[in-house]
Amino acid sequence: MAEAHSVDNPRLLHHFRNADQQFSSSKLGMWLFLFTEIMFFGGLFVAYIIYRAWNPELFTMAATQLDTMLGAVNTVVLIGSSLTIALAIRAAQTDKQKMIVNYLLLTIFLASVFLVIKYFEYTHKFDMGIFPGAYYTFDGIDHPKANVFFSIYYMMTGLHGLHVIIGIGLMIWLVIRAKIGDYSSQWYTPVEMCGLYWHIVDIIWIFLFPLMYLIE
Amino acid sequence: MEYVTNFFLPSAESTYAANVDALFHFINIVSLILLVGITIAIVYFSIKYRRKSQEDTTPLITHNTTLEVTWTVIPLILILIVFGWGFNDYVEMRTPPADSYEVYVESFSFGWNFEHPNGIVESNNLTVPVATPVRLIMRSRDGDVLHSFFVPQFRLKQDLMPNRYTYAWFEAIRPGEFVYFCTEYCGGGHSMMNGIVHVMDQDEFDAWTEDELGRDLDALPLAELGQLLYTREGCQGCHSTDGSSRVGPTFAGLYMAEREFTDGSTRIADEDYLIESIVNPRDLVNVGYPNNMPTFYGETLSERELMGLVEFIKELQ
Amino acid sequence: MSAHHIIPMKTLISTTVALVVLTIVTVAVFYLPIPAPFDVVVAILLASFKATLVGMFFMGLYYDEKFNTVVLIFSFLFFLVFVGITLLDTMFRDTGISVW
Amino acid sequence: MSASSTTNGKTLKVRYFDIEENPTEHYLNAETGLKSWLFTVDHKRIGLMYLASIALFFFVGGVLALVLRTELFTPAENLMTAETYNRIFTIHGAVMVFLFIIPSIPAALGNFLLPMMLGAKDVAFPRLNLASFWIYSIGALFTLASLAVNPIDTGWTFYTPYSVQTGSAVILMTLGVFIMGFSSILTGMNFIVTIHKMRAPGMTWGRMPLFLWAMYATSIIQVLATPVLAITLALLIMERTLGIGIFDPALGGDPVLYQHFFWFYSHPAVYIMIVPAFGVISELIATFSRKTIFGYWAIAMSSLAIAFIGSLVWGHHMFVSGQSELSTVVFSFLTFFVGIPTGIKIFNWLATMHKGSIDMKTPMLYACIFLFLFTIGGVTGIMLGAISVNVQLHDTYYVVAHFHYVMMGGTVMAFLGGLHYWWPKMTGKMYNEFWGKISAVIIFIGFNLTFLPQFIMGSQGMPRRYYSYIEQFQTMHQLSTIGSYILGVGFVIIAVYLAHSMFRGQKAPSNPWGARTLDWMTSSPPAHHNFNYQPVLNNGAYDFHKPIADFTLGIAEDDHGHEHKGEPVKQQEQNA
Ligand code: HEA
Ligand code: HEA
Ligand code: CUA
Ligand SMILES: [Cu+2]
């Protein structure tokens, strides 16, 4: 069993020699996980790049259906949330228990704003008949593969949105544990890991935004 | 030697086949030498250096640069030869001569149509003249799956896709009959999608062409038309005429038999039913069979052709 | 120890400001008439720069063990391999072998 | 005695190493009950659970293979319709690949050995390790569910558009594979972190057993490539549910793009299968030749080289698929380069045997069989990589023979060798040497009889995935079928004597083979936490030029707070 060790640090698991080893292991593990995330989204980016190289004109036409303004606002919202979660980690490192909770709540709020904006974008498109793939009925774009563009759009933003939702879930869990006072400068690994995860979600959006919304 | 080479590959019947074979045998021989060397080393070491006592100690040998460079460089040279050789022949296989005889190939589940420049359409058999480069312009039927055209004796293989054309070419060096297969897995009829390439002397081929051109499908009796369509449209991939079960039910004895469907209903297989099963195959599904008969026949076949098929099935009492 | 570096407030704030400014620049550049392939190049360069900022300061790579950076860079390279070699197929399907 | 130490100049406690340790309390009986297994975070128990699962799935896949072979005994329809046959070879392939061979060496032997070989108490993330096993089980359940609903008939490659059109349970199956992918990723991540962070003092990179270098290279591929499989299958599922049209030509997609996605994972995956086998072989050959491994760094680095080059060659499965000629040529060129590091390994192993003291025990016999069979599999891979020849051989039984020679003749033989080698460590019991050798020989004969004829009929043009064939090929098919039955007999014998040894076998000493790696410097079976102290390495993993009596293990001073329970440790103060 991964029983905790009571000698010097209650958070040190028995099979690690010291807290340093434990922390840097977790961090390397997290980075490897982010690596898999990059390859996971990478597949979609490959599909994107290939279809764009095949049909550049389609991507120009289709991007007009996306609202640049909303995309830009969402970019800023996510950047803001990246800041707040970094501040939450900082609060843990400086033993400001209350601020951990506050910053996490703020991050959750920003993440929700992002989702709400996405919700409006999606429903607006559904109203026009822009559905993924076979269900696509919109006739505003005169291109035989318009459905494929929107499939890629929905897959990429959908998968990203799913990551945002998962992130919110993780942060709610962090808030609960932070409230009991689980995190302190001694040990805050989950906050740090969740932060790394959240930043990669941000980075992916930083690439999605110009690739989807800003095509002339 | 002749025997060994024939043992491995079928006879070489196209212009580039002999080159391919040469590389095949070259790699085989080099591999065999390597394998024999490795095997001898294993056996020899195992015997010579077998453990004599539990206290045996062994010398400390960590590496040997000369040896290691040798066994890196020699394989390197070998693979460069093999690559260059394979590349060279591949260029030939992919470069049809300019004045080739062009045949359009259409594949579908489960069969083949070959359309000649003069409009002759053959099904499941391809007839070509000897010593003439033949270029195949190939495509799978719209909405169908991948197939692959493989003639072992020509060393020719190429996949077909429903969304674009692919190409291949060959020049047969001898008249004869050569089997072709479908080598891209395509479902229940995959192993039945084979046929024959007939390579004919130019004279014989010309005669065959004239015969074919003289045939008038509209004048063909219905049952014979049905027989033709049965192979051309690929029904034979799923439906046998000898009572054996393939992907779909056999046609033998089908007419006027009582059919049972997955929704529990039954029906007598009269003319009406037969036409309906061909045009709307998804509506009634026979018990024990998948619901995967193609749905496009209603659009691609004319009224007369449908009647032909029904007439053909009726004759299989 | 380096792994627990507390990132200064000033760094966090200025990173955020830089990111927001760069977002505005990205949108602004979109309205500039940059000829075809280069608009994408500029957009990707800007995005990469932003991603680097996030990675270095928010994610702390700047202060962290260098191996973590190696992991990240490696994953991007690997992604490039995937795209690059696949494009060798998709972009050259119509050019027959005799062309080269 | 010159024990080199990492605690510069300080006195170091040293533990002399006792060959005959057979503790009464060990990881197998530290806790009892089903729950103590299913919820264990002990890497050794997780390894054993994986071992049991993959043995089960190997059995399932093997029996299906015998059914296939029986159908192919004559050209006519013997047992089943084409539909059934298609389902069976698909499930045989998918079960063997995703449920058996990919987790085989890494998840079973790797889990058991990796922390021990490193001198660690466990992997870095024990709970993730357990999660990985559970994820694997859930994935397997989905796969089994798909069998119950409507067994899939697409081939293990799930090529579009057939996989979009067929009525079989593609979604359940691919979902199962998707889920198992995460288990593979977690194992890989865990291993990389463990190797980076948890090496015992004195275990430098240059002293790591080669099995660990192989596991390291494998883990990199697992972490790199598996996410691409995940997204591929996710897109395939979307293709079936939403018709997204990325891969489906009927909706404007491109089937060849699907093949790129699939092989981008599945080619590197063949190195997930074989590189761990290389690791096992390195251990076996060094130990049973009782000789320092020849070219340590060359073997270690060639594993990494194979991992990297192997990631660039996926298109050699698509030479006739309609991809561009340019990429065909590039892929063919790159493909051959995998042969160089692989050859380096083979020659290094042979050089290790040279002037050794070779003891032909069952594991070593398997290692020799491996060398022979894998070389055949490898050079036929080179044959397939030559473009013009590939046109003839693609999708024929030549390919089937090639990949059975590398997977069955390579990985499975190495796995069997490793299984026998570490059997005493895992169970504390010796297997029966006589029956071990008999069955190895039977398997060797059966295997060659099964798959050599396939090379011949393949090159003559026998396509794969055919449930019936033209008469010309009958002789070869019959030889092959008979061979497969012999193969089956060999495996039955193994199953019987291994089961027997578990209950009735002789007690195993802690180091029956006189090996030098850390996993043998603990009792058989190992204690609950592997070592009851934090070991410090004083020797290299392949120091076979020193007598084993000189072997000591240091005990680290920062072994904070760990009770040295269990059997008393023989200790001696030593000046380092
Ligand atoms: C464990 C799994 C495994 C391994 C290790 C390999 C190893 C290799 N494979 Fe194999 N392969 C498969 C599993 C594997 N393969 C599977 C499952 C398929 C079919 C999938 C499907 O379609 O269902 C396949 C198919 C396959 C194809 C596609 C065939 C086709 O469908 O048309 C090709 C083509 O290039 C290929 C090549 C190679 C090469 C070059 C190697 C190399 O890594 C081999 C390197 C080894 C050696 C070369 C031998 C040792 C070296 C020496 C003794 C030194 C001297 C060497 C030289 C001079 C070169 N393989
Ligand atoms: C690890 C991978 C692996 C392994 C080990 C095997 C093992 C075997 N395979 Fe398989 N095979 C594949 C992977 C594998 N295969 C793949 C990927 C395909 C392609 C599928 C596709 O086209 O989609 C394939 C396809 C394939 C075909 C081609 C089908 C076709 O194209 O039409 C054939 C035909 O002969 C075949 C035969 C065999 C045989 C006889 C064995 C034998 O070696 C099996 C021997 C094993 C046994 C006989 C088990 C019996 C064991 C016991 C009785 C002991 C009991 C044990 C316990 C209780 C623990 N296999
Ligand atoms: Cu058509 Cu296989
Ligand atoms: Cu491969």
What does this structure look like?
The complex is a heterotetramer of chains A (216), B (317), C (100) and D (576). Chain A has helices spanning 19-54, 56-63, 68-93, 97-128, 146-179, 189-213. With 216 residues, chain A is an all-alpha fold. Chain A has a single domain, classed as Up-down Bundle (Four Helix Bundle (Hemerythrin (Met), subunit A)). The radius of gyration of chain A is 21 Å and the shape is elongated. Mean pLDDT of chain A is 86; it is low at 1-7. Chain B has 317 residues and is of the alpha+beta class. In chain B, a hairpin with a 5-residue loop joins β11 and β12. The longest helix of chain B has 32 residues, at 17-48. The relative contact order of chain B is 0.10. Chain C is mostly helical and 100 residues long. The model of chain C has no long low-confidence stretch (mean pLDDT 84). Helix content of chain C is 71%, strand content 0%. Chain C has helices spanning 9-31, 36-58, 66-90. The chains are: A mainly alpha (216), B alpha+beta (317), C mainly alpha (100), D mainly alpha (576). Chains in contact: A-C, A-D, B-C, B-D, C-D. Chains B and D meet through α2, α3, β7 and β9 of B and α3, α8, α9, α10 and α11 of D. The complex binds heme-A (2 copies), dinuclear copper ion and copper (II) ion. Dinuclear copper ion is lined by residues 110, 147, 182, 184-186, 190, 193 of chain B.
What is the level 1 CATH name of the largest domain in chain B?
Mainly Beta
Number of helices of chain B: 9
Largest sheet entry of chain B: 5 strands, mixed
Mean pLDDT reading of chain D: 88
Major β-sheet strand ordering of chain B: 3-2-1-5-8
* CATH hierarchy, class of chain D: Mainly Alpha
Please state the second-level CATH architecture of chain D.
Up-down Bundle
* Contiguous uncertain segments of 5+ residues of chain B: none
Oligomer designation: heterotetramer
N-to-C order of helices and strands of chain B: HHHEEEEEEEEEEHHHEEHHH
Number of helices of chain D: 16
| Morphology of chain D | globular
Structural class of chain B: alpha+beta
